[in-house]
Every structure is written in structure tokens, then in C-alpha cells.
Amino acid sequence: MSTPRDVVLVDAGGTNIGSVRYALERLGVHATTSDDGGRIRSASHVILPGVGAAGPGMARLRASGLVDVLRGLRQPVLGVCLGMQLLFEHSEEGDVDCLGVVRGRVRRLVPGGQRRVPHMGWNRLERRRDDALFAGLEPVAHAYFVHGYAAPADASTLASVDYGAPLAAVVRAGNFVGMQFHPERSAAVGARLLANFLAA
Q1: Has 90 been annotated as catalytic?
Q2: Would residue 184 show up in a list of annotated catalytic residues for this protein?
């Protein structure tokens, strides 16, 4: 990252905004938090963090007038955890329409056997497509997950995670990328992914 990055964290009520900000600071990047559409549009990179539920998250974005703002962004945009799920068309969590910049629907995880819900802990990322996000990562990489809803792996999936079925762990649709896990809690793997996103 030879040029300065003007990174904005979208204030959608997610409780992990602070931890994402600290992860960016460890990379030498100071991010601001905003729910102002003009400020978000002017950023070089936009991150939509989220820990919570899809219904309240989308309600917060609508109340702030950010739905069309986010849909119209052309700079790199990263959705983290719930923020990734909000990039999809619909979520079963609250039966809510989401941003729709990534095709597909987010569904509730179903427990079974040794699989508990929520899916919590370290799990392996299975790469499905090459992407600049993976530059410098070892072929075998693990990330830290905490989620009770997920999107099935499909054509937009760069990396999946096996939790009874292949689930989308990293997705891309043009300038929009999403990480279902928490890069800010995924040690060196998460730091590398964030750095690669900021290098775009």
C-alpha cells in the first residue's frame, strides 16, 4: 500500500466495528466510521462490518438512506460477517430483502451430528477461484467463523468452508467482496486478506 487509503467503515450498528478498526490500524490504516452517504461515496475503500441480525441491519441502512448509496459504489467494498450477508439478495434471518449486489439467498444453518449452530471457531478455507485477495496466502489457510446463517457456495464464491455442505466463505461480484468469517480475528490470514483488499 504505497498510496494512502481513505477507508470508511459503514456504521450499520455492527458491534465489531471497533475490532475491525483496530485490525486496520495494525496495518497502518486509520479508518473513519460514518453513516453519511457523501462521506462513504468519497472513500477509496468501504467496509461494511456487522455482528447482529439481518433485519435490524437492513433497517439501519434504510433509515440512514444508505441502501442506494451502497448499491451504487464503484470503489472496492468489503462486507464482513453479517456485512457479507447483507450483500446478497435476501436473508432468511428476518425474511428481509438485502442489498442485492451479490446474487443468492442467505439461509439458516441446520444443526446435525457434530455440527452446532452457530458455526463457531476456526475452519479451513477451500479456494475455488484465483483472486488477488489470496496473494501471499499459503494454500492451506484457516479463518475464524461465528455465524448462524450462510449462503450456499455458488458461482460468486472465491473460497468455501465445509460445514455439512459447502458454504460461501469469500465471495466477489465486481468491486464487492465479502468474507463470512472475521478477518479481524483470523490472525495472519485475516491480516493478509485485509491488506490485499486495501491494495486494490
Answers
A1: no
A2: yes
At 96 the pLDDT is 97
Which set of grid coordinates corresponds to residue 163? 460445514
**Residues 113, 181, 102, CA angle at the centre, nearest 5°?**
105
Q: Which of 105, 118, 15, 108 is nearest to 60 (CA)?
A: 15
The full 3-state SS of 43-68, as one line of letters, equals: CCEEEECCCCCHHHHHHHHHHCCCHH
Judge whether 108 lies within some domain.
yes
Number of structural domains in the chain:
1
Q: What's the chain's average pLDDT? A: 94
**119 is a catalytic site residue:** no
The residue annotated as part of the active site, out of 25, 30, 81, 142, is 81
Cβ-contact 48, 7 below 8 angstroms: no
CATH number, residue 98: 3.40.50.880
Domain interval for residue 146:
7-198
pLDDT in tens, 32-54: 999 999 999 999 999 999 878 99
